[in-house]
From TrEMBL:
This is Lactoylglutathione lyase. Residues 9-43 form the Glyoxalase/Bleomycin resistance-like N-terminal domain. One of its GO terms (molecular function) is lyase activity. The keyword Lyase applies.
Length: 141
């Protein structure tokens, strides 16, 4: 892949209530993308490279024949999101908790070089906002 191409990431989530989920993600800092939103799906972006596609269960089923698991009962993935500092981490988790999500569904991670918390969205999908001191990564960053 050419170095000039920086890939975009699209995360697709099945949601029980599209309006509720779209409002939740907007409340925690995602920007609605109306060109990719209709009565079956809502697109929201976080920065220029990360997009969340919220899909009604009926729409989700057009992409896969697999069952939609209850994310409140099982975890398949936890999405880690790098933020600029601890204050931003706490602000996102607190906004999630105030707008229908659940804060701190797992223990917080606090180390000298890293701080992270997590939350579940209204459908149980887990996000892990974190701050990382990149100087601690050396050449791995």
């Amino acid at each position: 892949m050419p170095e000039s191409h920086s890939p975009k990431v699209f995360l697709n989530f099945p949601v029980a209530d599209l309006d509720r989920s779209a409002a939740f993600y907007a409340a925690i800092g995602f920007r609605p993308e109306p060109n990719f939103t209709d009565e079956t799906a809502a697109a929201l972006s976080f920065g220029d490279r990360l997009f969340v596609m919220l899909l009604t269960h009926d729409k989700w089923k057009t992409f896969t024949t697999k069952d939609i698991p209850d994310a409140n009962r099982s975890a398949q993935v936890m999405v880690a999101l790098s933020l600029p500092d601890r204050v931003a981490v706490d602000a996102m988790v607190e906004a999630a908790d105030a707008h229908g999500g659940t804060a701190d569904v797992n223990p917080a991670q606090e180390h000298d070089f890293m701080y992270g918390r997590d939350f579940a969205d209204p459908d149980g999908h887990i996000w892990e906002p974190h701050w990382l001191d990149e100087s601690a990564c050396g050449d791995a960053k």
